[in-house]
Amino acid sequence: MNIKKNLYWLAAIGEIVAIYFEINWLHQISKPLLMITLLIFFWSESDHRKDEKWVRHVTLALAFSWIGDIMLMFTHLNFLLFFAGLAAFLVAHIVYIIAYIRATYKNSLNIKFSVMPILFLGYFILLAYLIIPYVDTIIQVPITVYAVILFLMISAAYFRKGNTNPLSFQWVFVGAILFIVSDSLLAINRFSQTIPFANIAVMVTYIAAQWLIVKGLLKHDPK
């Protein structure tokens, strides 16, 4: 039994229960513990790889995700905290992109042409159509920048295909997709349309996304 893994899922269950039953004290305990327990698990599983640079980048991505989680917990006190959280997750995604590249390619990039990035781009154009008309011009810029980084993140996850073992590719790619779903639900619910049970959907996809990305990178084997 992996106690460190169970700690993450215990925090995850606590957060979902807290959101569903609106238990604020449990929410304030569980949500900050999510990235802390995942980071502890990641460190324990990657100890033999501690000299590899991508391990440090994943650590940074989880750290900035933790900062983003904390900022988004208090947006009801100050709307600017939403953009502070957005900035933290923006950095987390950038560092994840670097981690994908560092963990997968040792000497040079091996990227083959694919139509998939075109489909990703189409999705983000649709997402912009659903959100941009409903926000002020000054807010459109950071949202657009965030969408561009998300596009690069999912593309970087996809282009690991054929450069790592299938399990590592699949887990990271599905995790990246779920991260985008989580961010999309959060943005649509906040800026344009109310989505039923949005808070739970955002957290379930976010929790699964982070887990799959971390586990997928730990499974990486260039052979």
From TrEMBL:
Coiled-coil boundaries: none
Domain of life of the source: Bacteria
A Pfam entry, by short name: YhhN
Cellular location(s): Membrane
Membrane topology value: Multi-pass membrane protein
Any one GO molecular-function label of the UniProt entry: hydrolase activity
Annotated keywords: Membrane, Transmembrane, Transmembrane helix
GO cellular component, one term: membrane
PANTHER family hit by this protein: GH04784P
Signal peptide interval: none
Transmembrane domains' residue ranges: 7-23, 80-101, 113-132, 138-159, 171-191, 197-218
Family membership noted in the UniProt record: Belongs to the TMEM86 family.
Organism expressing this protein natively: Marivirga atlantica
Protein name, entry field: Lysoplasmalogenase
Keyword Lipid biosynthesis assigned: no
InterPro entries registered for this protein in UniProt: TMEM86B-like
